[in-house]
Amino acid sequence: MVWVKMNDCPIFFFCTFAVMNESEIQHIETLKRLLCEAAGCEAQRATDFIVLAVYVRSQTRVNIGVNTLKRLFHYGSEHAMPRLETLNVLARSLGYRSYSDFCTHYGTSATAQSSDVVLGPHVSTSSLLEGQRIRLRWNPGRECVAEYLGNDTFRVIRSEQTKLQPNDTFQATFFAVGHVAMLANLIHGDTSFPLYEIGRQGGLTLAEVVAIRNEE
Q1: Mean pLDDT for each 10-residue chunk of the chain (216 residues)?
Q2: For 142-156, b where at least 16 C-beta lie within 10 A, e where not — what string?
C-alpha cells in the first residue's frame, strides 16, 4: 500500500495527420481494452486516466501524460493518432516486448480475448445505486466497506488493518479481483491525496456489493 502523487508529465505526443487502416484501428482498440482491464478502470471519467498513467508508470517506469491518454481514448473533443513510441510503452505495460509484438500476438482480430489479462469478479460504479455498499479485501488481511454516494464517490463505513478510516471519501469507477485498485482524490481526515493504491500484493482478493443490513 502506498501513497502516490501524480504529476502530468507528458513525454510522448500525438501525430494528427497520419491515417490508420482498419487493422491498425483494431489493434489499438484491443490494446486500450486490455489496458483498462489491467489497470482496473473504464476510461470514462477524468480520474480514470490518472489511474491508467500510474499503472503504466508502475509497469514500465515511463511517464505517459494524462492528456496523452485522454487523446488516445478520445476523451473530450480532441482525437489523434498516437506515436509508435507511445504504443510501445503501453504494450510493454501489458507484458509485451513492443507494440509490434502485441500486434503479432493478437493478429488482426479486434475481438481477440486476452489469455494474459482476464477480468474476473468486479464491481463497476455504472451498476451501483446511491446508498449501496461494497466490500473490498486485499492482502495482508485488509478490508474496507464503503458506501456509494453517487458521481463515482464513496465514503468509508468501516475498515480493518488499513489506513482508510471511517468517513474518508474517495473516487473510483471500477474494482476487479486480482487487480490493483486506484482510489482517486482521497480525503483522509484533514489531508487529501490525489491517488491511493490498494492491493499491491496480488490485487484485490474480494470486490462485492453487500446488503446494508449485514453491515449494521
Answers
A1: 41 43 78 86 87 88 90 77 88 88 68 45 87 95 96 94 95 83 87 85 90 62
A2: bbbbbbbeeebbbeb
CB neighbourhood size of 82 (10 A)? 24
Going by DSSP bridges, is the β-strand pair 142-150/133-138 parallel, antiparallel, or unpaired? antiparallel
**pLDDT computed for residue 78 by the predictor:** 60
Dig out the grid coordinates for 123 from the structure: 464491481
SS3 of residue 193 by DSSP: strand
Contact in structure between 56 and 34 (CB atoms under 8 Å):
no
Q: Which of 175, 161, 168 is nearest to 193 (CA)?
A: 168
Residue bearing cell 482496473: 40
Q: Indicate the DSSP class of residue 55.
A: H
Contacts of 14 (CB under 8 A, 6+ apart): 68, 71, 72, 80, 81, 82, 83, 86
Q: How far apart are CA 37 and CA 119, in angstroms?
A: 6
- Residue 81: CA atoms inside 13 Å, Cβ hemisphere, count? 12
First-to-last alpha carbon distance for the chain, in angstroms, is 27
Contact (CB, 8 A) for 201 and 72:
no
Separation CA 148–CA 25 (nearest Å): 36
Instruction: Name the pairing type of β-strands 191-198 and 2-4.
Output: antiparallel
Residue type, 107: G
Whole-angstrom distance, CA of residue 55 vs CA of residue 64: 10
Between CA 58 and CA 81 the distance in angstroms is 24
CA pair distance 71, 79, nearest whole angstrom: 5
